[in-house]
Design goal:
There is one protein chain. The protein has two helices and nine strands; from the N terminus they run H-H-E-E-E-E-E-E-E-E-E. The protein has two domains: 30 residues, no CATH class; 109 residues, Rieske Iron-sulfur Protein (3-layer Sandwich). By secondary structure, the protein is α+β, with helices and mostly antiparallel strands. The structure holds FE2/S2 (inorganic) cluster (FES). FE2/S2 (inorganic) cluster binds next to loops.
Amino acid sequence: MENKIKRNEFLKSLGFKGASLLAVYCGASTLSSCKNDSGVTPSGSVDFTIDLSNAAYSKLNTVGSFLVYNQVVIARTSSAATGFAAVTQICSHEGQPQVYFTGGGFACPVHGATFSLSGAKTNNVSSKGITAYQTALSGTSLRVFS
Ligand code: FES
């Protein structure tokens, strides 16, 4: 973590910031998820709609399933129309894009941080929670937004 902070400060001193800083991290990473990075950052605003009748997203019709779209982890938490939870894929601990749905909340496998369905931290691995988003289901259209 210390190295990352130093690197962050070093890059900032060179004039990198925001999206370009994120791109630098992704470029140095071996994580394939960065290849599809569409520029959504943990603190950026999110607003997109996916169609749950589309095979690519239909797993969200099954309680307990989740998928990642635009670095947002979307989980089906119950069969109710309100039974969704959405959080950033970016862990608040050291910024790894590896947050996943555990069935009862969210977790990051890198160092074991855990989070509630609303993104609050539920252990002390990370000092803070992760950004959660709102969801709204209309027919088969699920909107995820800040
Ligand atoms: S980066 Fe997620 S637990 Fe450390």
